[in-house]
Amino acid sequence: MAGTPTDYVLNEQLRVGHFIHLELSWLEHPFPFNNFMIRNADQLRQVRSLGIERIRIDPARSQVAAGDDAGESDGPAKASDDASDVDADDEAQAARDAALEEKRSRVEKNRRIRTRINACEREFLEAATVCRELSRTVFADPPRAVESAGRLVGQLTDSLMMDRDVMVHLMNDKVSGEEVYYHSLNVAMLALLLGKALGLDGGVLQLLGLASLFHDIGKVDVPDKILLKKDPLTRAEEAFLRQHCSYGVEHGRNAGLAEPVLQVIAAHHERMDGSGYPKGLKGEAIPRLARLVGLVNDYDNLCNPANPANAITPHEALSLMYAKHRRHYDEQLLKALIHILGVFPPGTVVRLSNEAFAMVLSINSARPLRPVVMVHDPEVPKEEAIIVDLDDETSVNIAKAVRPNQLPRQVFDYLSPRKRVTYYFDPATGRAGSGS
Amino acid sequence: MNGGRASESLLAASGEILLLVSAADCCIVEANDFALRALRYPREALVGRPITDIECALQDAFYWDDVSAGRVTPLNEVDGMMACGDGEMLPVTKSISVFAHDGAVMLALRAGDARAASAAADELEASTSLLRAIFESTAEGLLVLELDGAIMNFNHRFAELWALHGSAMRSDRAVLRHMVRMCRPADGRSPWRSLLSIDAEEVERQVELADGRSIRVRARPLLMQQQVRGRVLTCSDITERILHERELAAARDAAAASERAKASFLAMMSHEIRTPMAGILGMTEIALQRAEDGELRRFIEMAHASAEGLLVIINDLLDFSKIEAGKFLIEAIPFDLAALLEQTLEPLRWQAGQRGLALRLERGPGLPRWLLGDPTRIRQILINLVGNALKFTTEGGVTVVAAVAGEQPGGIQLEISVRDTGIGIAPERQQSIFEAFTQSDAEIGRKFGGTGLGLTICARLCELMQGTIGVESRAGQGSTFRFRLPLGVASEEAAAELQADDTAVVARPLNVLLAEDAEVNQVYLRHTLTSAGHQVCVVGDGEAAVEKALAMPFDVVLMDVQMPGMDGFEATERIRAAGADVPVIGLTAHAMEGIREACLSHGMTDYLSKPVRSADLLALLARLGPGASPVAGVGEVSAPRGPVALARDRAVADLGGDLQLWAELLNVVWEQAACDLPMIRSGLASGDLAKARYAAHRLKSSLAVIGAEAAAEDCGRIEAALRRHDGSAASHAMGGLERSFEELREAASQAEQRSLV
Q: pTM for this structure?
């Protein structure tokens, strides 16, 4: 049938430009993907050396010049075969061995990334536990709550201040079986990252962290009916909700939080163009830390709204903030956030240039455009999904972001996009740490 | 300048946004008219503005940062987003080329409106997600396969139905393998072969899962532009439905079983009721013969009339039940219409005469003599209608008219009408008189009696014979009942055959001496013999038998073997001793071994075992015609004949030719044997001989009724042995019974197959 997506060519008919499907286990070949287009002679040699007699190709996605057909290029190939048959074979064999060796090291690296993410998830869970405690003790025993919050922020800041690149990992939203999502922890995480990127010193980061953890403390006085409401709020409800800033200041003062922290609590909903609340402050009138917390607070609320059905993808959230709401934010801070999270922040599902679907798992804040992605490959079990650091794999890049509901069913199940986008940073890896 | 203006005009005419950006400060240096219009900025607002105010996709932030840092790269046809002067966002496809102008690096940005494409993408997404929502919201599990077996899609319900998770979803192949593995191994061909075949056929299979569920899988071709592109499997869990169906079937079977039990009960009842009724009628008849005129005779006459009335009611009820249960079979045999009419009306004539009424029969022209149909049922209808007419008529008479109402291929429409001059039926009651359990009014019921089922039975019988029945009447002016039946005209050959049979059955009348002490048997045998045209003289003991046999010339003597005083053997010996060679047939209830030898050794010609089957008796007598050597003739009939496993025809004949009744009784026997056989076994094993004997006796009677001779005899042996308290002989006989029963089952199933053919 014409246009069948699967044709086969013989090994010697294979050309640069053929889009091939390797019908081998992922570990039996040296390439990062099972399906790709042969880009150069090196790759062609490597594929040929795999010794597959018939190779499955996708004619529709292949780009072989019309004249460049089997018969024409057979001559030189044969000549070289005749001349140094053995040498060529040895060479190819050596190249393949080297490539496989490289792949094994890549596998090892994947394993390390996985291990790091798992370790992060454990740390995240601990932090989440502290957060849960905080919301309980902050009214019963305010000094103790502030102290334990301070300790948590201290730990986070310490690891952040190490002189290394920082990886931002996407947390599985079903860590340990229960859904864990702590808005304040997420905000603290992003705020501290942003703070570090802006070069804030340790003391300020400490205040920033505390302010992030406590910025919504006033919401305890807002009825759950309003907080958890999935439909749009009425004007009265909206007015009630807006009170959480002033309530928060009160609670914070009672708990003995420092004045800069109270300022953040008061002004984290103010906006640069004066469209915010409660006071409608403009520009420099808003304390810088409040602008910072307000920015990441908005980002997290877009990704993780009260009604998950209204959630937009991290990429969409950041795009929306940059394109449409730019005037709400301190431009320097917004650009800094974009530089940390990149165009495709962790949690975004993307289409790669080789047409594979992938999910962005982690981002090295120093190289935000080349994140670590988990690739959908039906040949590879989901539990062992291929993880590719695009920083290493320069032949592939991200073509575009995809909305989860546009994904084919199996891809959706395979990549399982998160209902809640939760980040945790990890200062121990990244390029600087890869040597250790 | 000319050239400059020309190129300016060219730029202005372009249908694309063209912006010139300085790499040094990333500000817009120049814009074409189209850009001003598309972006809705006045020239002075656009020129000099930082390009990042306009370019607002996330990528752009990075791109222009790189440009500011001196890393300038061209772009070709990439997606972008531009902020318009009024705050709108314009999706674009843009390219950027880099060139040097007057020593400065400049970037030329060319962008096309991508709203159409983006709208199309949005629309596609909307329809995709609608499709997806539908795909997911169906209650059935869906799997879409490509032609090469690759999975295109499946929904949550599908994964749920097939318990797909983890490693089962490792690959397309693993999914299919998992599904096949979930199934219980199928008998014969695997259903998957056809379900997963690559053709345009639509296939539906039910697959049974190892976990006990049943899944109905439908496979349809996936057609795109008239071409088969894949296969869609629709799966639904039908476990509950199947369970439900099974429950229904069980309920239905239970109902049918209870229906059968009821029918068997009725069959048994008819047998059980008719037998004593025959006894009552016979006894009262005998009593009437002997009774003097007077009060006692009137009492007996009343008793006899009551018994006859009761028999009619019982027959009505049983007939009605059988018709309602669909157990009534209609025959198609040749019969002589004129004879049928005459024979039917004869007794009624007597009845009419008693009441001072005339009963006339009129025959229309062209009536064939031989017809094909069910004479018994036609007679039944006629008796009913004429009986009714007589009952409701006090003066005048009843006229029966038989006529040809029409011709039809191979036969005629026979119409018989019964006209009376009785009380008539009011119009409003004419509708309901053929319905069950209605009499035209309660008063009539009280006055004339009867079940009120007579007309219903007539109507149902007409229906069964594809005929019709109706009534015309006016109250006080008499009624005319009319029934019309489609009947075949019998061929001459068939009729001739029937006549030959008739002569065979109707034997020469004989003079019979019956020596029998049991009165019921006296009545029964007398009735049987006189009905067949023989003359009977009955005596009650051996001495009287000898006396009569020697005093008068009898054609045959029926001699009960066991009689009080002188028994049958001794009586026969005396008759022989006196030199009489009249054939003597022994009648014995003991089907024991050697009885034949015993009979012959005492001078008897042959023997019949009790209960005596009328057909056997009559056939035997038929062969004792004058001139025939009695001994030879009898010898021929009773050539040593061991008991057979199943003498069905004989048993059916005993039951008045009612094959249906026999079949029902057979079922009764199976049910009884299922209870009695284990009871005999356990009785013998546990030494409870009384129990075993009781069961053997009970089973023997039933087996005899259906003609299971061998098994009945075995039961008799067991009974006899137990009467002697001889357990080991009984056990030995039990072995025989088990074997006989096996043979009986075999014979019964063959008989049933025969009757099916």
A: 0.51
